[in-house]
């Protein structure tokens, strides 16, 4: 590679990046062929180093990085140990010494470094390999340059992506056994080390007013919270490894089951205190709140071998709820994202911990839990009815309501339900609120009517679309039959009388049905929901 060939590449880059009207199809193909020739070059490392050092074209720099990556994958076996170490060191030094490198070029090179670290994990001294990475990351975080601080997080995030065997991992042409061994090899030490490093970094924000931080600092905090979320969604279950990589969108379904070596971190009371303290500062920032609530949702699923005994499970659950309920108590006006995030966390807790563990909580804490859950469920029922139907806000509240009602049902379920005296009044409040959320004003909170075309364009029958909610409210209603059944009978009677009165007015005044269609639609809608709720209350088997 020399200056003349570099100029050829840069001119080709201009042709590739030019708009269609400025370059002929033939000329664009010739330019693309030049970059294809570069990618197919055997041992292109010196040429790519020359390009990286001398080119002023971001596109050419990106293509050089991409060429190095492809060549490393293709030629790994023929590279000597010294060549591998030297190339990895060069790329690491290159990205850390150029703070003004455009982001997509930097990320391409970061991914290549992460790929090379993974490829070398089973061949080199793993501890020394990661020591060099952590040394670089620590040095980057200590600089005053915001881009270099972001780079520190990018390096750790790229490593997690490569080792996680997710759909974001690079295809390097190795058998699944290789990926499994690489993933297992870092779980006990290196992954824990990244977790501890991340937690230590986050501690500095406890005493900082986040509203006073510049955008670059908030972006860095967001990236580290995302890094924490990636660690907590790591799939530690060896039996679940398969040739099909875990899709990134499926991480929320992974149960947190790290080895016992993580107990010192997860069972340290200051760990959960830190996260809930940060949560109290982030409610007004949706991006930060999303990453942190996702992490807390995963922590709500923590189980064996970290929580090895019933006593540890009880202490962890109590500590978790202490932070969660403390947060709810100081946030009287919850945003929709908070409502949704809290519903996911509580649902995970109810799924992961048995009712007997909830029953063993200190009475004041258990009472506060039920009170907070009741407040959240009633609030969400009201919001789901008053937001515009089909809007993003409405759908989020509907899903949140599903979650809260599931939690209620889990606390009512045998063999260890909570004391009836503790749940009776909350169940009455929840049942009444749910009933109002489905009925039209003045009996409920729904708008007076929906347009005819909206009614007929529903994609699913309400019985199917709201089956989870209906099963839950049926279970809740059966726990308080002395209040739910009379209320249903009374409301059905009122709706029936109202319907008869409206039909009588139409008959008496010789009016058309169309002239009173809106009033009738509202009444029909009320009767529709009353029949559904009554059916699911009277029958605990709703299919077949």
TrEMBL record:
Localization: Cytoplasm; Nucleus
Keyword vocabulary terms for this entry: Cytoplasm, Nucleus, Protein transport, Transport
Listed InterPro entries: ARM-like (IPR011989), ARM-type_fold (IPR016024), Importin-beta_N (IPR001494), XPO4/7-like (IPR044189)
GO molecular function (one): nuclear export signal receptor activity
Nucleus keyword on record: yes
Location, primary (coarse class): cytoplasm
Protein's GO biological process: protein export from nucleus
Listed Gene3D superfamilies: Leucine-rich Repeat Variant (1.25.10.10)
Family: Belongs to the exportin family.
Protein name as catalogued: Exportin-4
Species the sequence originates in: Geodia barretti
